Amino acid sequence: MIQKANVFLSGLPMTLTGGVFLAASFFLPMLGHTEAEVLAWIPVIVCGLPLLYLAVIRLIQNKGIAKISSALLISIAMAAALLIGDLFAAGEVAFIMALGALLENMTVNRAKQGLKKLMALEPAKGRLIENGRERMIRASEIKKGVILRILPGETIPADGIIRTGDTSIDQSVMTGESLPVDKTVGDTVFSGTINRFGSIDIETTKTAEDSSFKRLIRMVTEAEEKQAPTQRIADKAASWLVPLALLIAIATYILTENVIRAVTVLVVFCPCALVLATPTAIMAAIGQATKHGVIIKSGEALEKMGKVKAVVFDKTGTLTYGRLEISDVTPVAEISREELLKLSASVESRSEHPLGKAIAESAKKQGISLYDVTEFSMKPGKGIEATINDAKYIIGNEKMILEKGIDIPADVLRTLENVRTEGKASVIVAKDAAVIGVIALSDVLRPEAAAMVKSLAEMETEAVLLTGDNRKAAKYFANLAGIQKIEADLLPEEKVKHIALLKKDSHVCMIGDGVNDAPALKTADVGVAMGVMGSDIAMEAADVALMTDDISKLPYLKWLSNTTIRTIKTAILLSMLINFVAILFSVQGILTPTTGALVHNAGSCAVVLLAALLYDRKYKAIAAVHSC
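Above: the chain's sequence. Below: its structure in token form.
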């Protein structure tokens, strides 16, 4: 009951109500309504009781010096002001502190829905094969060593090894790879991934509870639990401010024998400006970041970003667009590039495979008309056969071409090796019994990537690439972006381990866009999720979200963090300087509790003004990054 009342009183409506009555208690007596002074009791009760409750709770629950908080000092100052009958001073102190607490709470509004969304992707059932019969069972009932049948379009409910069938598996949920991976007998498959084409039977190697997808969920949960909120600067300072304030107030009373001077010392000693310094600067920074399409979820993340010395990138959808485009069309026989593309696109126009779709889409964009295709058939995990004008065409991987008894010339093998070295996917095009060409496809590097990496380097921040994609693809794109440090072929838990190692040497920022990036985003000191391209889960797991897919905002984010911290330190220094001067004037009797409250209120206004200037501060390097 007490806690509910405390939450109600400390909310925005009641705090604003207290402010209105405080203003009335100040201005109405000036107009001749002296009885209006009692209106200051409203902010004293509304804003003061939550502070008193917080001070008592910390005295009871905290240990050691942590029992002494800024709330305790404010409560003492309020009590002292009330004892000498200065209602306005007591109400003003309570209101300013309540307003500061509200501003701070607004910066820490972290969503907790990401884990629920991740769990929603978990497979619910599996198709068990026993004694030649199929039956559906709950995923929780799946045991190690049983046979499961996975049909096209179904999600794999447990880790296992393919025993029969060929297919292509969409592993993006686990590895972030942009392409489905061709799988055949003996290959490993993971729970949570999607069977795209052929029907397969797998032998489970783990129970559903021990599966890769379950581990992914557990990692996000554990990383969430490891994150503790940063202790408020005012509370850290209160451990020495409270004793110091009491000592100075007592000394003032002993030396001057004037209780009003002693109370004034307590009032001006209240760390109102100190408390406002952090939340107002953070609110201003968050507001400015929002204007630039960067959503910062907490002040803690903003502070840590300034300490970051290593930025970890996922590849697909982060450094690259995550979409396939034709990069090379290489004819082998007496055929033009356009004709090779036309033939390939005609056959692939019926395909559902991402490689085939990319080839067909490229021809469509170029306005190439297609041939009529007959006798179309697809071999999952291998390729396509079709007939055009009585000629048989085969488009597929090396395995399919060789299975058809077609020799692959040495120059084609060299072309395929060069394509692999650049991290590209490829298909071989054969007509009847001869290879007529090779088409290579590649993901596309974001044009701002290289300039962004260079900008980070100039800010003494290292770029690191951690990806679930193969090493050749990772190396190719890392070289284009100017990244030296690379780790490839990583599962989500391996990304987490690498980030943990990096954290031993410096603060680490991770930027990613997929479900598979969620544990790594949580493990890093600062997690940044891509917005437009990103999954909801990655967005929820991260501390910062880019609402566009412009990674050149990373240097801006780091600049903003550094600038915000400098602003906070300046505001704290200014507030302490004002407090110091006000204490000297209070000891000499120049200030009274009321004028003293107004002085430190002026300090609070100065802190808010600094924050407002931060909101409009320009980052000139943004244009520089885009123009590179």
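The chain has a mean pLDDT of 82.
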